[in-house]
Structure formats: structure tokens, C-alpha cells
């Protein structure tokens, strides 16, 4: 079915744009960090869609369901493995629906199509001699599902005595000796180094540099083990023709990006508009090495080109502390937030606060303050004031008369609005959502000031000043239309409601429609247009007693 989609899309010859989130482990319910990865990817694909009418977006996400961690979690939950995986996978789907994650494909690694892809990929590596069998011993982290080189381990004192942990993740390690299949990672060092020199292939550049440094460091470059004894990791895809070995969960997981687009159908490779290489893998810094070193090497070995880009983000801490089950500070996004201020506020906060380079900090107080001051006051109030019956009883976008107001006041707003689309386009293109939000809010603050200083409530009392009132309302409503188009990738639900309120046709909501304000259009609007009448609250203030659920699971 999916293959048919691609064939059809190639007929209409739209350019493919393929963006992915990591697939999420089902060993626990989704939390704020997981939601962030997905919201970031979603905002990017929404921006791509409103700026390019000629692209065909594939936006994939899903769940990573194999491995020891999942075995343990299912046992703890007292559920069969398939039931357990389905339950948590379903929670991700609910969460994505609630937070408007508009994915086109949700893949589970326990699906048949994925099993086929992984086995095919494996055989391909074996055929070209990139996989061999060997005895392997080393420090193993069940939590990271990875062997950790000795030099990246340290001893730590705990109440159970001395334990060895991974320096990178802090997770406990066990000395493990087993027979494994190995992948010739070392054969790809030079090719990887070349790929990593491609300008902007990993963004932000700080993370590209990190990977380049890793490659300089020999320690990262031994071959890697790509199987585990099935006796230990039984909930996994078996190595083809060897029932005693399970395929390494990371190899299994990474291949999801190919399963989604129909691999192993080799005809895909020959298609003109095939959605590969992926345009962007979005992921957090904890899994950068897997995507920036292992994945391109696996692909090179299988003779598939590596991804065009990787976007790596930093982490969310909570009240200044790393989220962890043991600390009980894991923030679970509420799953009944659809259409409520909380859902919108959380999505907005995630994009508005986080920079990619540095960790961001979540606190409920911050969520409430940001949402109330920016979405409720700066944006929502302005909407209510200029759409409400007190000042706009006919519910219309009044005509734009030749200036009826002091140029100094109107000019500042108009100039800022004129510049806004270009500024935000640049920030969105650089994935700097926080800067775009800042720019929009700054224009909206100017619009609020303009509204205040124009005193429309006084103009309303004096019929001879109707035209001045019209100009105030027109400029403000036009500013709101432009801001609503720009905000669509960040807060799609309230942007849509606002554009509906302003009766902006669905076909007039793409980026080009925010680039020219009405006052720049030759022979502008000289006739009033209707907006939706009736009571309208864009974003209700949030009061502290409604708590965002914090749970330790
Ligand atoms: N299953 C692997 C990915 C395989 S992709 C082929 C995995 N899953 S995960 O559920 O642990 O993480 C999924 C995403 O959530 C990652 O991008 C990770 O960085 C992100 N986050 C997990 N905790 C996070 C924070 N505290 N803050 C921000 N994002 C973090 O890794």
C-alpha cells in the first residue's frame, strides 16, 4: 500500500521530504522529553509544508519494542510481551494525537514489514562480508543496550558497594562474555569522516564537531557487536539462519527508517522521487552516536546513501534536575489535554524555551507564566479586544482607508510586521523556534501598544472618527492574521482557530500569504470583510490549581 503511495506521488512528481523522529522505547510511558523530540520534528515538517507546495512529506515515528529493557518492563507490569508493547505503543499514539503530531507513518518494530526489512538488511551485510562471528567480552549496559569501551567506564561507590558505570550515560555495567556477530565498523572510518565533513550534515555544528572528534579518537573505532545470545535477549528479531542469536536492538531499530518507506523493495532505489536519503532525522543528544556513526556506516555497508541531515537537540531537565524514575520527577504530558489550554501551552513552551545547544529547564510555574503572558495576554487579549462586540459590533475586518492615524504610531507597527515573515523564515529554517516565538511576541507587544495609544474605545464613541477606528482595527487584525500564519508550525490548534475566526480561507494560509501585509498590496482592500461573529476566547488563562500531572512510574 505504501509503495503505491510513493509510485503515485512520483506520478504527480512532488519532491519528497522525509523527516523522522526516533522510535520510542516502550519500557515506560511517554514523558516530556519524548514529546519534545516529536513536537520539534512536527513543527519542522509543518513549516516545510506551508513554505513548499511542491513537497510530499513523509513524517515517520513509532515505537522501539525489542530488547532486554522491554522484557523486564513487561515482566514487571505482569503482562505478556505483545500486550505490554501494544499498551505503551498506544499511549504514544494518544499523546501524538493530543499534541497534534501530524505523522504520516507510525511504525512498530514488532510489525511484519519491519521484520522483513531487518532480515533483508542483515543478509545484505553478510553477503558483502561486513558481518563475521567472534568471541566478545566487555562492559555491557542493559539500559543503553550497548557495550561500552573500558576507557569510557568508571567505578562508582553505591550502597551495594563498588559498581562500574558508563561515563556517558551513568548507567550500570556488567562484565559480559559471549559469542556475537560483529559488524566491520572500522572499515568505514574514512568514509564516515568524509561524510561528517559535509557542511551542515549534523546540526547544530557543535554536535557535528563532537562526532568528528569521536572519529579522531581510535577508541571509538573497533568493530561493533551486532547480535546478542537469544538465551539472554529473546524478545528480538533472530539472526537469519541462526536461531541462537538475536539481532542487536540498535541495528534493528535504526532500520525502521527504511522499513517505513517500503524497504526491502529494491525498486525503490531506482525511483526518481524516492524518499531516500532521509532529509532529516530528529533526535536527542543521548542517541547521536548511534545515528551519526553507526547508522551511516550500516547504510554505507548496505550500499544506501546516508541521511542528508541530522538534527540533534539537548535535553529537558525538571526544576533544574535530570528527569529520572528514581527521583520521581518525571513529567508525563497530560493525555486528556486536547483542546485545552494545557496542551497548547506545553507544546508552545517546549518550542519557545528550548535552544538546541543547551539543556532547557521545565517547571510548571514557567509553563503557566509563559502561556498566560504570551498566549493569553499578548495574543489572546488582543484578539478578544479587536474582534469583540464593544469595538467591532459588525464583526468585520474594516476597510483600509487612506491613513486616518498619526503616522508615527502606525509606522512602527507596520514596519515591524513587514519584516516579521522574513525574520521568522530565517529562524524556522535554522530550527530556532524560540527566536521565531520571540519575534512574533515582540510584534504583538507593539500591536498591543498601538491599540492602547490609539484609544479605539474613544474613537468608537464619536461617529465622525469611524474611519480612524477602522484603521486601528484593520491594522491590528491584519497583524493577527500574519502572526497566526507564522505561528502555525508551533501552535497549530490555536493558529487554526484564529485563522478560522478571521475567516482566512484554508487556501490562503501558506507562507506566501503572510509575506505581504494588506497595506503593501496595490489598490488594497477598500471593502469590509466579515469575520466570524460570536463569543471567542482564543486561549483561556491557566490558573495554578490545575496542575500538570507529575508522576513517578
Ligand atoms: N529507542 C531509541 C531510539 C531508536 S531510533 C532508531 C531511544 N528511545 S527513547 O525513548 O529513549 O528516546 C527517544 C527520544 O526521546 C530521543 O530523541 C531522546 O533524546 C529523547 N529524550 C529522552 N529523554 C529526554 C529528555 N529528558 N529531554 C529531551 N529529550 C529526551 O532512544
TrEMBL record:
Gene Ontology CC, one term: mitochondrion
Entry EC no(s): 6.1.1.10
GO MF term set: ATP binding; methionine-tRNA ligase activity
Name by which UniProt lists this protein: Methionine--tRNA ligase, mitochondrial
UniProt KW keywords: Aminoacyl-tRNA synthetase, ATP-binding, Ligase, Nucleotide-binding, Protein biosynthesis
Superkingdom field: Eukaryota
Enzyme class, spelled out: ligase
Domain Methionyl/Leucyl tRNA synthetase: 18-386
Organism, scientific name: Leptidea sinapis
Any one biological process term the GO annotation gives: methionyl-tRNA aminoacylation
Catalytic activity reported: tRNA(Met) + L-methionine + ATP = L-methionyl-tRNA(Met) + AMP + diphosphate
Annotated Methionyl-tRNA synthetase anticodon-binding domain residues: 411-516
Keyword Cell membrane: no
Keyword Iron-sulfur: no
Record PANTHER family: METHIONINE--TRNA LIGASE, MITOCHONDRIAL, METHIONYL-TRNA SYNTHETASE
Amino acid at each position: 500500500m505504501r509503495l503505491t503511495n510513493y509510485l503515485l506521488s512520483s506520478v504527480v512528481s512532488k519532491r519528497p521530504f522525509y523527516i523522522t523522529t526516533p522510535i520510542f522505547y516502550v519500557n515506560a510511558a511517554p514523558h516530556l522529553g519524548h514529546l519534545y523530540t516529536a513536537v520539534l520534528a512536527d513543527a519542522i515538517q509543518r513549516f516545510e509544508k506551508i513554505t513548499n507546495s511542491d513537497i510530499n512529506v513523509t513524517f515517520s515515528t513509532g515505537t522501539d519494542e525489542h530488547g532486554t529493557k522491554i522484557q523486564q518492563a513487561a515482566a514487571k507490569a505482569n503482562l505478556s510481551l505483545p500486550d505490554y508493547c501494544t499498551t505503551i505503543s498506544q499511549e504514544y499514539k494518544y499523546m501524538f494525537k493530543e499534541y497534534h503530531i501530524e505523522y504520516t507513518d507510525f511504525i512498530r518494530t514488532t510489525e511484519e514489514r519491519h521484520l522483513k526489512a531487518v532480515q533483508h538488511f542483515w543478509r545484505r551485510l553478510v553477503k558483502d562480508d561486513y558481518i563475521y562471528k567472534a568471541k566478545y567480552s566487555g562492559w555491557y549496559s542493559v539500559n543503553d543496550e550497548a557495550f561500552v569501551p573500558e576507557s569510557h567506564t568508571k567505578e562508582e561507590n553505591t550502597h551495594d558497594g563498588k559498581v562500574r558505570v558508563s561515563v556517558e550515560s551513568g548507567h550500570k555495567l556488567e562484565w559480559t562474555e559471549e559469542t556475537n556477530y560483529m559488524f566491520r565498523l572500522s572499515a568505514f572510518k574514512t568514509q564516515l569522516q568524509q561524510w561528517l565533513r559535509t557542511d551542515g550534515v549534523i546540526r547544530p555544528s557543535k554536535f557535528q564537531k563532537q562526532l568528528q572528534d569521536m572519529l579522531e579518537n581510535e577508541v571509538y573505532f573497533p568493530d561493533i557487536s551486532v547480535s546478542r545470545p537469544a538465551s539472554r535477549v529473546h524478545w528480538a528479531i533472530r539472526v537469519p539462519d541462526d536461531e541462537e542469536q538475536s539481532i542487536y536492538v540498535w541495528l534493528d531499530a535504526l532500520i525502521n527508517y527504511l522499513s517505513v518507506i517500503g524497504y526491502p523493495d529494491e525498486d525503490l532505489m531506482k525511483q526518481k522521487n524516492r524518499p531516500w536519503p532521509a532529509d532529516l532525522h530528529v533526535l536527542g543528544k543521548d542517541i547521536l552516536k548511534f545515528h551519526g556513526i553507526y547508522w551511516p556506516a550500516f547504510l554505507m555497508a548496505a550500499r544506501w546513501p546516508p541521511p542528508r541531515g541530522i538534527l540533534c537537540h539537548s535535553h529537558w531537565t525538571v526544576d533544574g534536575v535530570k528527569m529520572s524514575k528514581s527521583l520521581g520527577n518525571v513529567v508525563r504530558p497530560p493525555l486528556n489535554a486536547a483542546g485545552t489550554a494545557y496542551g497548547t501551552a506545553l507544546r508552545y513552551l517546549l518550542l519557545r524555551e528550548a535552544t538546541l545547544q543547551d539543556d532547557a529547564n521545565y517547571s510548571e510555574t514557567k509553563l503557566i507564566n509563559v502561556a498566560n503572558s504570551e498566549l493569553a495576554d499578548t495574543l489572546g487579549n488582543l484578539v478578544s479586544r479587536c474582534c469583540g462586540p464593544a469595538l467591532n459590533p459588525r464583526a468585520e475586518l474594516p476597510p483600509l482607508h487612506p491613513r486616518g492615524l498619526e503616522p508615527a504610531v502606525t509606522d512602527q507597527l507596520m514596519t515591524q510586521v513587514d519584516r516579521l515573515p522574513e525574520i521568522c523564515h530565517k529562524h524556522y529554517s535554522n530550527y530556532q523556534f524560540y527566536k521565531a516565538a520571540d519575534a512574533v511576541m515582540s510584534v504583538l507587544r507593539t500591536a498591543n501598544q498601538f491599540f492602547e495609544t490609539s484609544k479605539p474605545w474613544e474613537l468608537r464613541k464619536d461617529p465622525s472618527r469611524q474611519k480612524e477606528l477602522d484603521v486601528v482595527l484593520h491594522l491590528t487584525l491584519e497583524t493577527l492574521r500574519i502572526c497566526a500564519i507564522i505561528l502555525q508550525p508551533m501552535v497549530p490548534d490555536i493558529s487554526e482557530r484564529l485563522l478560522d475566526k478571521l475567516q482566512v480561507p484554508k487556501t490562503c494560509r501558506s507562507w506566501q500569504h503572510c509575506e505581504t501585509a494588506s497595506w503593501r498590496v496595490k489598490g488594497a482592500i477598500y471593502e469590509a470583510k466579515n469575520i466570524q461573529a460570536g463569543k471567542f476566547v482564543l486561549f483561556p488563562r491557566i490558573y495554578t490549581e490545575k496542575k500538570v500531572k507529575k508522576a513517578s512510574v
